[in-house]
Amino acid sequence: MSLLVIGTVAYDAIETPFGKTDKIVGGAASFISLAASYYYSNIHLVSVIGDDYDQNFLQLLKTKGVDLTGLQVKQGQKSFFWKGKYHIDMNSRDTLDTQLNVLSDFDPVVPEMVRNSDFVMLGNLMPSLQMKVLKQLTKRPKLVMMDTMNFWMQTALEDLLKVLKEIDILTINDEEARLLTNTHSLKKAALQILKMGPKILIIKKGEHGALLFKDKEVFFAPALPLEEVFDPTGAGDSFAGGMIGYLARTNDLSFENLKRAIIVGSAMASFTVEKFGTEALQNLTKEQIHKRIQEFVKLSSFEMKLETANV
Amino acid sequence: MSLLVIGTVAYDAIETPFGKTDKIVGGAASFISLAASYYYSNIHLVSVIGDDYDQNFLQLLKTKGVDLTGLQVKQGQKSFFWKGKYHIDMNSRDTLDTQLNVLSDFDPVVPEMVRNSDFVMLGNLMPSLQMKVLKQLTKRPKLVMMDTMNFWMQTALEDLLKVLKEIDILTINDEEARLLTNTHSLKKAALQILKMGPKILIIKKGEHGALLFKDKEVFFAPALPLEEVFDPTGAGDSFAGGMIGYLARTNDLSFENLKRAIIVGSAMASFTVEKFGTEALQNLTKEQIHKRIQEFVKLSSFEMKLETANV
Lengths: 311, 311
What we know:
The structure is a homodimer of 311-residue chains.
Chain A: E1 3-6, E2 10-16, E3 19-20, E4 24-26, H1 28-37, E5 43-50, H2 55-63, E6 66-74, E7 81-86, E8 93-99, E9 119-122, H3 127-135, E10 143-147, H4 150-155, H5 157-164, E11 169-173, H6 174-181, H7 186-194, E12 200-204, E13 210-214, E14 217-221, H8 235-250, H9 255-272, H10 279-282, H11 286-300, H12 306-309
Parallel strand pairs in A: 1-5, 1-9, 2-7, 5-6, 9-10, 10-11, 11-12
Antiparallel strand pairs in A: 2-3, 2-4, 7-8, 12-13, 13-14
Helix pairs in contact in A: 1-8, 3-5, 6-7, 8-9, 9-11
């Protein structure tokens, strides 16, 4: 069994109300792989970088068990770069600069030996590239999970809808769910999206938690109220990475286990936002993760007494 | 034991994206009393109306066990009237008309026999009037719960801060928590507010659920994803009413029971928003409430397996 991760490996420059960074390592696939690595060790990354990329970070990924065979290195070219600034409420941000660089003609190639992966995470990327990866697989994976964003809904909807038909789990945020369906009620939007292909939909609501929809079932995962959200970059990717890492480890796609996977994802995201970029995810201990998950359990568990609930 | 409720008994005219009403019965104390009545029967309302008020509704309150001895009826005067229009996202609204009428010189009088109430709910009202009620009590109640709003923070902050020192539970929404503390992080805001007097703070986040803070403990109560929020008017009051009704019935102020009370409050609010005004709360059955609470249990319960949580 293996977990295939596709997405960007990039440089970010981030400005938040709490500070700013120069170029730091980032990208959807970086966050996903790091988060997943705490639960699963047979991870294979498919992405592209220039020859300017941080070798120490690549080494770190390797030591975390992330195989980089599928990571193309373009000599003489620069890595994808994104620069953004978060507003004071941390819920919205402005893109100050985007340099596609190596991403502009990226042609993903899945290494031969992992074309039969059981778990596939399509990180946020141009939908046609996500599809290209799926087409290279030699068998239908047990689970294909996909993240996407409003930009592709606005510029590549047709391609996006094609990929949706091929996947099992879609993760998007509340705004994107509304955009994709032109529907305000998230419950109604979810029912519509579940008809577009995915069997399972996860709507991420940032500090308000996440909703899991499958058939007629709904689960509401809380977000941990944090003293400070320091940098939201990569929170959604960390969420997805923690989730699919947990699912690959447990190899159990029941609704009950999906709930647990979302809690794990939420925990990984809660670490990410406490520091800049991938910093928090680089050095977590078992104990920290265990403690954080217990906080989630405490945060949302209650027991209703039947005799009094029954008015 | 008795439950004392103070707040407005009013007429509302409401416009939402789904329709509009003429004058219908409303007011914080109406919603609170109705919601509480499904859990507790010894309820005493303190408020004021004109002689134009709907007798059928007053009769309904009585049949639900709400004692109206403390409800002043001002002959020749009109009841408080509010007219508002909700925006398409239902999270914000414009006030189109406010006629204070009888409210402009309201002088609340707590009936002699209930000045020793164990449970007191101070519905949203001018803080000086909430204080007047507290001053008439002959003993410190077991529980004083208070709801307020941004308007009083902006126009009567000094009075508001005085009342805060006298209460046990404060319910406000996320925007109001930020306004009151000038702090964006809800966790930080909560810690500040808990220093202002209340032992327990509940931050209502509408469709995103509610947060309960007590000392260093936090609980995140989900909101039920509804197909349609029809009219949010009275949701917060129904929440408070369900909560204090449940607390009075169970007479248990432990953290575990506070969690249950919030779930009950959330359930009552979820009914309210499905119809105009008090319509939904007027005719609930035990079975409906029981079923709704089970939906909340299902919505947020999960069980973490220790062996896999421990990465």
